[in-house]
Design goal:
It contains 11 helices and 8 strands. With about 300 residues, the protein is an alpha/beta fold. The longest helix is centred in the last third of the chain and has 16 residues. It is globular.
C-alpha cells in the first residue's frame, strides 16, 4: 500500500513547540511516544484504521532534546500493526536512550522476541480501543503473555473506561507489571471521586502490579489547552496516591487528534500541576521509568 499522505481528518504534529517553562529533572524519560514511518521505508499496516503523517525518529529525538528529556519509551502504534521495524530502527539509532513497547501476535517465535529484546523492547502492548483495532478474546493475549514471561517483560494496555469491567478478570490475573495507558481514559466530566474513576482507583489499590500513565490531557480534556485544567485532578490523584507506579509521556505525535494539535511544550508545563513536589516529579519522570525500562542498568 503506497498511501503516505495525511488523512484529511488527521492533523500533523506541531513542528515548532514552545520551550517549556518547567525544567525537567536530569534523566527524565518521555515514557509514551511513537514513531510513524517514514512510510516509503516502513510501510503502514494494510489493516490499519488510520494513516498518520510521517513522524520520524529524527523528529522525535529533536523533540526530546528541545523539551529536555534524556530518553524515550517508543510505543508501537496500531497504524504499523505488528511490524515493529520503524520502532526498532529508532531504538537502535537511539543507542540505549530509548526503550520499546512492541505489538506481537501469538505465533511470534522465541527468536523474534529475543531480537526485539536485544533492540530494547521491554513490554508488549494490548490495545482494546475499537476505533484503532478489533480486540481479540482473552485467550489470544494469554498466549502472548506466556511467550514473553521468560524475558521479564511487562504488559501495556490501552482501553476505554467502559472496557475495564469487561476485562477486569483478565487484567488482574496477570502476574507481570501491567501499565495502563492514559489513566484508563476516564470521562473527566464525571467527578474524580465518582464511580467510574473510582473503579480505576480500586484496580490500582487492590493490585500493586498495576501502573498508570498520567498522560493525554489533550485527548481527555473538555476545557482544552493550554492548561487542560479539568484533567489535572485525575492525574494528580494518581500521582499522589501511587507515586511509585505512574509514568508520564507526551504521546507525540498525537495520532488521531482532529480538533487541534497540542503544543508539546505546554503539555510539559502540566507536569508541575499534577506532580507538585520535586520528589513526586523525580519519581514520575526519572525513577519509575528507569526502574521499569532500564532495570538491568
Ligand atoms: C496513543 C493513542 C491513540 C493511538 C494509538 O496505537 C495507536 O494507534 O495508541 C489514540 O488514537 O487514542 O496512545 O497514541
Amino acid at each position: 500500500m503506497a498511501t503516505y499522505t495525511v488523512d484529511s481528518d488527521w492533523l500533523a504534529f506541531d513542528p515548532e513547540p514552545s520551550r517549556p517553562t518547567f525544567v525537567l529533572p536530569n534523566g527524565s524519560v518521555d515514557a509514551h511516544c511513537h514513531v510513524f514511518g517514514p512510510g516509503d521505508r516502513f510501510p503502514y499496516s494494510p489493516t490499519r484504521k488510520y494513516t498518520p503523517a510521517d513522524a520520524t525518529k529524527e523528529d522525535l529525538f529533536a523533540l526530546r532534546d528541545w523539551l529536555g528529556f534524556s530518553a524515550n519509551v517508543i510505543v508501537q502504534g496500531t497504524c504499523h500493526g505488528s511490524d515493529n521495524s520503524a520502532m526498532i530502527d529508532a531504538l537502535v539509532v537511539a543507542k540505549g536512550r530509548a526503550r520499546g513497547v512492541a505489538t506481537v501476535e501469538p505465533g511470534v517465535s522465541a527468536a523474534q522476541l529475543n531480537e526485539l529484546h536485544d533492540a530494547g523492547v521491554r513490554a508488549v502492548r494490548f490495545n482494546y480501543v475499537r476505533r484503532l483495532v478489533d480486540p481479540e478474546p482473552d485467550e489470544y493475549y494469554l498466549r502472548i503473555v506466556e511467550k514473553i514471561a521468560p524475558l521479564g517483560w511487562h504488559v501495556d494496555v490501552y482501553f476505554e473506561a467502559d472496557d475495564l469491567a469487561r476485562r477486569w478478570d483478565f487484567f488482574t490475573s496477570l502476574e507481570s507489571i501491567v501499565v495502563v495507558d492514559h489513566m484508563g481514559r476516564p470521562d473527566i466530566s464525571q467527578p474524580v471521586d465518582g464511580p467510574e474513576f473510582g473503579r480505576f482507583l480500586r484496580l490500582m489499590r487492590e493490585h500493586q502490579n498495576i501502573w498508570a500513565k498520567v498522560t493525554c490531557p489533550e485527548r481527555l480534556s473538555l476545557s482544552g489547552p493550554p492548561e487542560w485544567s479539568d484533567t489535572v485532578p485525575f492525574a494528580r490523584r494518581l500521582v499522589e496516591e501511587f507515586p511509585d507506579r505512574v509514568l508520564w509521556g507526551t504521546d507525540w505525535p498525537h495520532p488521531n487528534l482532529k480538533e487541534y494539535m497540542p503544543d508539546d511544550g505546554q503539555l510539559v508545563d502540566v507536569i508541575p500541576r499534577i506532580a507538585t513536589t520535586t520528589d513526586l516529579q523525580h519519581r514520575l519522570l526519572v525513577d519509575n521509568p528507569t526502574r521499569l525500562f532500564w532495570k538491568e542498568n
